[in-house]
Amino acid sequence: MQKSNYIFELAQIAQQQRYCIQTVCSTCGSSEARNDLFMKTIESLGIDFKDTNMERGWLCIGNIYDEKLFKKVLERIIKELNDLSDQEIDTILGPVPFYTWKGSAGPDNYLKFVILQIYDSLLHRLQQRPKVMSFFKDSITNEKINYIIYKMDKRYRGASNYLDTF
């Protein structure tokens, strides 16, 4: 029997509980989804919460200041993304994937949320978008996840080129 992927489980919980998964939400900061992602990751690593020196309510992976812990958490989340099956990815994306929408970023989606959590935390540390994108290229081995990142990057570059015209 195959062990369940916790990214898939968390996506289902987020949908059932109607969690806010807007990465830039200024009301709740997507705290439930961020907290769940952090807690499930450290649980899967066998790390006790008290050993993380994190504060409840601020469990965003970008707030991990201990570099060893950050690396472990990041590697574990990447592993979970890489281990998602095509069927799990399709289920999370739903009938109309967010990246197919024209003229907007599309509806919020848990995969987009997780990818942007990784992106934001790395951008804060590396300070250069090309380095972050290189990290994704080197770390993500799941073809469907790579395609989603490619589509998100393509939309970002298109939007930033548009904004450069002002």
Can you put this structure into words, describing what you see?
60% of the residues lie in helices and 0% in strands. It is an all-alpha fold. The chain has one domain. The protein is globular and about 45 Å long.
Attribute tags:
166 residues, mainly alpha, disordered C terminus
What is the strand and helix layout of this fold?
Layout: H1 6-16, H2 31-45, H3 67-83, H4 86-93, H5 110-126, H6 129-139, H7 143-163
Helix pairs in contact: 1-2, 2-3, 5-6
Number of domains: 1
Radius of gyration: 16 Å
Separation of termini?
55 Å
Parts with pLDDT < 50 across at least 5 consecutive residues:
161-166
Coarse shape: globular
How many individual helices? 7
Largest sheet: none
Work out the strand percent: under 5%
Helix content: 55-70%
On the 0 to 100 scale, the average pLDDT is: 82
Query: How do the helices and strands follow one another from N- to C-terminus?
Result: HHHHHHH
Quick structural summary:
The protein is mostly helical. The protein has 7 helices and no strands. 60% of the residues lie in helices and 0% in strands.
